[in-house]
Model the fold of this input.
Amino acid sequence: QVQLVESGGGLVQAGGSLRLSCAASGQTVSRYGMGWFRQAPGKEREFVAAITWNFGITYYADSVKGRFSISRDNAKNTVYLQINSLKPEDTAVYYCAATSSGDIRRAKEYDYWGQGTQVIVSS
Done:
């Protein structure tokens, strides 16, 4: 079992930045693909970014390319999401997830999920 705990969310003005963290426990996630998803009020959960366990290949949703950056520190069993140039439409609960296989851009491929961290962007 893998437990994931997100942190770093908060209220920020448009144009600001945040760094979200996802700390894993229970077992190492060094061989897991890791992803970030978000869910805005009244909307479905959507893919934001992901990073493979091997080679650290990254994927991003078109809406966040150039503004968000995902990274991982296997020594700390932690994944990060640096989010810059925040927009009001980035307001959502951000979830971290871990997958042992499959397309890491697809939510249904993920085995473990965190409880989420709220990001609110004011205009």
Q: What stands out?
A: The chain has no helices and eleven strands. The chain has a mean pLDDT of 96. The CA atoms of residues 24 and 111 lie 13 Å apart. The two ends are 40 Å apart (CA to CA).
